[in-house]
Amino acid sequence: MSERSVGPPPDDSEFLRGVLASSADCIKVLDLDGNLIFMSEGGKKVMEVSDFNAIYGCPWPEFWQGPLREAATSAVETAKQGGTGRFQGPATTMAGTPRYWDVQVTPITGADGRPTSLLSVSRDITASRNAEEIGRDQQTLNTLIMNSTRDCIVVLDLEGRIQFVSPGGIEAMEIDDVSSMIGAEWARVWTGADGTAARTAIAAARAGGTGRFQGFCPTLKGQAKWWDVIVTPVAGDDGTPARLVSAGRDITELKGAEERSRLLMEELTHRVKNTLAVVNAIATQTLNGKTSYAEASKALTLRLHALADAHDALVKTNWTATPVRVVVDNAARLHANGDPRRFHIAGPDVTLGPRGVLSLALVLHELGTNAVKYGALSTAEGRVDVSWKLDDKGEEPRFRFDWQELDGPPVVMPTRVGFGTRLIRQSLGPDFGASVDLAYRPGGVIFSVDASLRALQRA
């Protein structure tokens, strides 16, 4: 049996034959009962029909599944009545390939004007349908992203006027009535140089590029905030920018961290310079003394160790308030020669600032060194009482510190005033509003300080 579609279709006009030969649509002819009696060559190709005889005479609505079968039957009935039936839906080819079709069924009339057969034209719209679905999916995804992000997303027209603010932007900017923002010039929410940067970013995006800047813009309720902003174009159908989108990310915490880091570096630089100045003074005065190189080297090393211990104590408290007891314990540990009974330490919980800590540490080192060489710690029986207290009865609180050596050898007034003695008398002096007393009494050296607590606690 030969394929019935090889011969001419029911209408044997040259025009119809040309259409059938050139069309890529699936063109079919049905009898008035809806049975398939002809298929164009383009239709056989798109429907992947290898043997038309296998489907010749089959009820055409049965090629559709589910509700589409009813739609196809309804289209046939409409065409039989002289109308046009139309529907869209999916159907697989004879080889099982999924397609999506736009279908139209119209009557073919005879000389008397009444339908003699039906013409079904099915256009493969799979590609456009997929593109629409992708577009809808993308639009849904974009909406989900815009509604879920905490960034401030603002849609602008090409003149930079606000058209839309995302829910995250409404929350971030503390906007109670977003309608009051629509139509406003977006760049006006920025001030000074930031306003110029915003207009420059708009111009860049309007030209098809990307604008970016960081700026300060408080919320509508006055909360201070810093933003990292990107402005990009949204292309229209012709590919040129149709709208602009500004995405602002709150970087207030980052800016705060940067500022804290800057201040920390400035403070660190200041403290390093001060420490180097102290080291230079210690080194200069130690090496200028009338001692041998070996003695000067040892004295310098010990003094630098004392300074290092004070720095360690400050580091543990982030260079803030450091307890007096920590400073005293460090000195006692260095000079007690492993015997904690050599020191009796008593005093309330008091903290000092960095300058006060360094000064007290250096003074205690010199006192301890002298005690080991000449005073109470030079004998097995000697000991040192260290105590401090607060006096808050006056206009401002005072800090009283005492060092008293006991049970050591008889004290002899030194014949000359060395660097160590000058350091003891001057380190806790005028800078801290202090009066200092260093006495070489026969029973033991006594050192006392009466200083401003506020001055000692300053950074």
What does this structure look like?
The protein is α+β, with helices and mostly antiparallel strands. It has three domains: 4-126, PAS domain (Beta-Lactamase, 2-Layer Sandwich); 149-250, 2-Layer Sandwich (Beta-Lactamase), CATH 3.30.450; 255-457, Histidine kinase-like ATPase, C-terminal domain (Heat Shock Protein 90, 2-Layer Sandwich), CATH 3.30.565. It is 39% helix and 25% strand. The protein has twelve helices and 17 strands. It has helices spanning 14-22, 41-46, 67-80, 126-148, 167-172, 192-206, 252-287, 293-316, 324-335, 354-373, 419-426, 453-457; strands at 26-30, 36-39, 85-92, 98-109, 115-124, 152-156, 162-165, 211-216, 226-235, 241-250, 322-323, 343-346, 351-352, 383-391, 398-406, 435-441, 444-452. Strands 2-1-5-4-3 form a five-stranded antiparallel beta sheet, sandwiched between helices. The protein has a five-stranded antiparallel beta sheet with strand order 7-6-10-9-8, with helices on both faces. Strands 12-14-15-17-16 form a five-stranded mixed beta sheet. A hairpin with a 5-residue loop joins strand 9 and strand 10 (241-250). Helix 7 (252-287) runs antiparallel to helix 8 (293-316) and helix 9 (324-335) packs parallel to helix 10. The longest helix has 36 residues, at 252-287. The radius of gyration is 48 Å and the shape is rod-shaped.
Give a quick rundown of the structure:
By secondary structure, the protein is α+β, with helices and mostly antiparallel strands.
